[in-house]
Design brief:
This protein is of the alpha+beta class. It has 2 helices and 8 strands.
Length: 130
């Protein structure tokens, strides 16, 4: 991943949760010329979105997980933070809610999902240093 995306506060990843991954892949590949690569992850297949022949992904597409069933398909943004657990605590102190508590993504890092006091949702992530 590009170093600028690893800095605290940088937007670093976009992700679509959807009820129809195949249809989303076809739509966005046709619309933007995205290339996609399926990766096997524990309990799921994750699709990495790539642009312009670059091996580094710019985002991902995944099936809506069981805990989010009933939610409409939606894009989410990830912001890099130095310490996702501390960020979750700070969000609550500032009046936000932690919708998904900090949890690990194997071989990627640790993330959480936060809702601000106005209701907007964003994810925070601390990547594994490689």
């Amino acid at each position: 991943m590009n170093e600028q995306f690893m800095q605290h506060g940088a937007f670093s990843w976009c992700e679509l949760m959807t009820t129809d991954v195949a249809a989303a892949k076809a739509f966005y590949s046709g619309l933007f010329g995205w290339e996609t690569e399926d990766m096997s992850m524990p309990g799921m297949t994750y699709t990495v979105v790539k642009v312009g022949g670059n091996d580094m992904g710019v985002g991902g597409i995944m099936a809506t997980p069981p805990e989010a069933q009933g939610m409409p398909p939606m894009w989410g943004a990830y912001v890099t933070v130095d310490d996702v657990d501390a960020t979750a605590k700070t969000a609550e102190k500032l009046g936000g809610k932690v919708l998904v508590p900090p949890r690990d993504i194997p071989k990627v890092g640790r993330f959480c999902v936060i809702q601000d006091p106005q209701g907007a949702v964003i994810s925070a992530i601390t990547y594994i240093k490689m």
